Amino acid sequence: ETGVTQSPTHLIKTRGQQVTLRCSSQSGHNTVSWYQQALGQGPQFIFQYYREEENGRGNFPPRFSGLQFPNYSSELNVNALELDDSALYLCASTSPWGSTDTQYFGPGTRLTVL
Amino acid sequence: SQQGEEDPQALSIQEGENATMNCSYKTSINNLQWYRQNSGRGLVHLILIRSNEREKHSGRLRVTLDTSKKSSSLLITASRAADTASYFCATDARGNTDKLIFGTGTRLQVFP
Fold first, then answer.
1. What is the pLDDT of residue B1?
2. Choosing among B9, B43, B50, which should be mutated to test the A contact, i.e. which has the most A CBs within 10 A?
3. Which residues of chain B have a CB within 8 Å of the CB of A56?
4. Contact call for B30 and A106, based on CB within 8 A
5. Distance from CA of B14 to the nearest CA of A (A)
6. If DSSP codes are grouped into helix, strand and coil, which group holds residue B83?
7. What's the Cα-to-Cα distance from A30 to each of A46, A47, A100, B35, rounded to whole Å?
8. Local confidence band at A94 (pLDDT 50, 70, 90 cut-offs)
9. Do A41 and B31 touch (CB under 8 A)?
10. For residues B40 and A100, what is the distance between their CA atoms, to the nearest angstrom?
11. Among candidates B107, B94, B97, B103, which has minimal Cα distance to B23?
């Protein structure tokens, strides 16, 4: 167990809708990253938040946005869903002490866009 | 885009055999990590090797790193059916150690 939780586990949406995915990190982990993993592929970095500010972004359009809250929870919002957004979405948190290079992943949210 | 490529894409072995997976990457790194994923669920961190290290061990896992060839290998010794999973290498983006760039993964099947 990594101590990182995500909700919901599964989600089905239709094209054009909006979705919010949630992640709860371990207490004290002030960095959270979000990844998208398409079927049969490795995870791809979407963006990272540090102390509630965006701290780096991958090659994803602005309709992918995020929020991080003081209680170590975070959200990934996707607007105007497209069929290609169907994927497993993973969040990962990083401890500010010890090895800061190890990310702790949640179990993921599987999003299906019809 | 993917940073790394794992080789082979899929590997099937019998319990007790060793499994070797290779990873190649493109840019300079601070460290390289290996993760395991069961059935499309969350990733579990296995081992991290820094760019100034050549070999690292953790239990039945042995990782090597050759920065001159931009490659790494993961060896799982005495494999068990429970080792069946997908294995990914991940490198950091130089200057941003929190952004991981993953390879395409190796699907390992261990038969009892």
1. 47
2. B43
3. 96, 98-99
4. no
5. 23
6. helix
7. 17, 14, 11, 22
8. confident
9. no
10. 25
11. B103
Query: Is B42 in CB contact (< 8 Å) with chain A?
Result: yes
Provide the strand spans (E) within chain B: 5-7, 10-14, 19-24, 31-37, 43-50, 55-58, 61-66, 71-76, 85-93, 96-102, 106-111
> Which of A55, A105, A111, A112 to substitute to test the interface with B, most B CBs within 10 Å?
A105
Does the bond joining B8 to the residue before it have cis omega, within 30 degrees of 0?
Answer: yes
With tokens 């780096």, the residue in question is: A56
Query: pLDDT for A9-51, tens place per residue?
Result: 999 999 999 999 999 988 778 889 999 999 989 999 999 998 8
Q: Is residue A82 within 8 Å of A15, Cβ to Cβ?
A: yes
